Amino acid sequence: MYDITVVGAGLAGLQVARLAARGGAAVLLVDARRSVTECVRTTGIFVRRTFDDYPSLLPFLGSPIRSIGIHSPAGRSIGLVSDRDEFRVGRMKPLYEAILQQAIAAGVEWRPNTTYASLRASRGHSEVVFRDGSEVKTRFVVAADGSRSRVARDLGLDQNSEWITGVESVFPSESRGVPRFDCWIDRRVAPGYLAWMVDDGEDMHVGVGGDRARFDPSAALEAFERRMRKEGRLAARSPIERRGGLIPVNGVLRRIANARGLLVGDAAGAVSPLTAGGLDACMRLSSHAASVLLDALRDGVALDRYDGCAFRSRFASRLAMRQLFNLATQSRALIEIGFAVGGTAVARRLVRHVFFGRGSFPDPAQPRRKCHGVRSGKTTFLPIPGDKPDTVGRKVVFPDLTP
User: 0.70 exceeded by the pTM?
Assistant: First the structure.
């Protein structure tokens, strides 16, 4: 019997599996894909707080981006330049592969091309059934299977209810200028969210995202690419890769753990409701999950500490701002008024805070408040990566990722 079975080998699942195995757990990692480098869905934008706190990510990140432009339908623009490195785009395929190899070296059993089918509760453990008819026994199950998690459903935990759809094309960069991040607020191509172009001098990501009930993502992306070519921002070349998927924007779910397992990454709704950024939340929540699981294998009750309500309270302002953004961007006139006001000093400070603020996913090292009848104790967050090697137990360190 396994201690932990992780379903899904994206960044969240890989992180949990590797850290739990390094803490001494017997871990099974499964994914329906043949390889972790198959069907990458995320743009891979890491914010300053993440690469500051996880320096071992740096070999897998592109050039730093300090300049950002926000554009209206009528061509108004707000430009911001930071005096610090604010964004880096991850080279997600080599990053995933590096984490997987370290997970395997730590003792993780890796089963690709294995599709989850169902879950049966048994006394003191669960039985995970796969589509090929095979099954395994496991003490805990980790749902890392994305924004529409079947594992979360079968565990009886909360599920996401609000998404945006994002699609993008990746092109080789032809820019010789300063790396930059541009986004367009335009309900014609990205209702309820935005279109983007991120160019770090190596790759150029061109994409759109929005309310999936209000637009055709593929058609919107084609229209946006034509527009970018017409404006001279995009060369007439074929993309080297296309990516896409659902992004949950309901905030961290409340019930993300029970006695049988827990949720991480998109399955837990660990994505900013306002910016739809999820990689910082993914790294932190998955690291916290590994620590809690290792404690739970010893005392059986540590999963009480893994409670979404304390995290969700920190997302209240972002949820409110998302609702305001949805309302305001339904009207082109309101968008243009917003850009006109955006030129004022107060508004620019707010925009800078949204794009450059260090506030991201909260650290779990804080007392937890009462939520759905359970009051849990304090949670110890993992130390900053690299400060101490190979510590087993409550303090699980994010190890170096370099080969």
Answer: yes
